């Protein structure tokens, strides 16, 4: 991608839309037909990485857990982004100083992790779905920051950070799901108790007096 090629050599703030159009052999008008701004070009890059990761996903084995599949998917993501690491370092450094602009990528990162979890067969319904997606997004964000400076061939630091984050996240989700089950059980019990009190049982109450005989 032309934008990544330029970002690998120059600060992202110094890369203009005219520069990207020229690098891609496009007119600025053609570039505008495809993208609204530079941030949208970055989101398009994210989408392309998503697609490549999903395409490389291997069928789960009989002993593979959801956690195993998520771990493999995120490590595959780092592999796909490997050729663009220098560009991503510069872009990350630029966005780190501009939290308002960086916040524009929160939704696209959540979408990425939604697809990661969905492809792994994770449960994505119920009250904990959003927490699961947001949690994985945070785990990935931490691993991504380590990956940017991890130059080892086997990415040991990145793998360790990701493994630790997934383990802690899994424990947290288990505790949260148990808490939700407890609360839901209490709510159901309260509904049964209070709902039963409002139903007539066929017996007159002391305050109602004798039941009049029919005429």
Automatic annotation (TrEMBL):
Superkingdom of the organism of origin: Bacteria
Residue ranges, annotated region (Disordered): 193-215
Extent of Low complexity compositional bias: 205-215
Name of this protein: Uncharacterized protein
Record lineage: Bacteria, Pseudomonadati, Pseudomonadota, Alphaproteobacteria, Hyphomicrobiales
């Amino acid at each position: 991608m032309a934008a990544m090629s330029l970002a690998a050599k120059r600060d992202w703030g110094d890369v203009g839309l005219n520069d990207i159009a020229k690098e891609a052999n496009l007119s600025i008008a053609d570039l505008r037909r495809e993208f609204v701004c530079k941030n949208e070009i970055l989101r398009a890059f994210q989408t392309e990485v998503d697609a490549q990761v999903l395409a490389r996903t291997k069928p789960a084995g009989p002993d593979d857990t959801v956690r195993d599949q998520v771990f493999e998917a995120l490590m595959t993501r780092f592999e796909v982004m490997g050729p663009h690491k220098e560009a991503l370092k510069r872009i990350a450094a630029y966005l780190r100083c501009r939290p308002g602009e960086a916040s524009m990528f929160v939704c696209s990162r959540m979408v990425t992790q939604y697809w990661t979890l969905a492809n792994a067969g994770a449960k994505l319904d119920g009250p904990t779905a959003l927490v699961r997606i947001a949690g994985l997004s945070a785990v990935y964000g931490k691993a991504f920051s380590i990956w940017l400076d991890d130059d080892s061939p086997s990415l040991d630091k990145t793998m360790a950070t990701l493994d630790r984050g997934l383990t802690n996240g899994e424990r947290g989700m288990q505790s949260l799901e148990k808490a939700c089950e407890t609360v839901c059980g209490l709510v159901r019990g309260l509904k049964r108790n209070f709902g039963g009190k409002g139903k007539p049982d066929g017996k007159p109450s002391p305050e109602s007096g004798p039941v009049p005989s029919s005429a």
